[in-house]
Amino acid sequence: MALQDTLDQLRNFDVGDLDVNNLGAWPSPVKAIVLLFIFIAVMGGGYYFYLTDKQKTLDLAASKEAELRLDYEKKSFQAANLDAYRKQKEEMEATFGALLRQLPSDTEVPGLLEDITRAALDNELTIESIDLEAEKRTEFYVELPIDIVVEGDYHKIGAFVSGVANLSRIVTLHDFKIAPQKTAQNLKMTILAKTYRYLEEEG
Fold it and tell me: Which of 26, 43, 47, 135 has the most CB atoms around it within 10 Å of its CB?
């Protein structure tokens, strides 16, 4: 019966009869509906203005947690493999030391020039010049360029280049130029050889 009375009140309700200055005189169903709307508005506003910022903070914290977890896993893996890394470092240092021993010292440069000269003569080439150029310093080593000019036929020049590249000391070859001379079989080659020495070897 109470439900029927409420429905009748709502059915006979006229918005024009409402007086905002006399809220107490409003029908109970209308007051209940207005309170419901106010409650929904307050909850919605509270969620938007309070919980939205909190949700952003939570998302950022979750993202940071994921980054920290990955960082932890990476460091944990490194810590677990520390002995293997140390062994690998020792092996690399040994390899590096072996490579350093292939770099000529100041006293070995004349011997290197002799080896280059011998390689040219063994392949029956005419040596026009073998000139040392100015040293070039880098962070870990000194680069010593050697300008070489020889004459001979194509196959002998090829054998000479192969011989220089296979010397016991590290020698790299760059910027070669080959030009024919009086006959097509006689060629003139200009090539830049570079050898290296470690900076710590200097006194």
Answer: 26
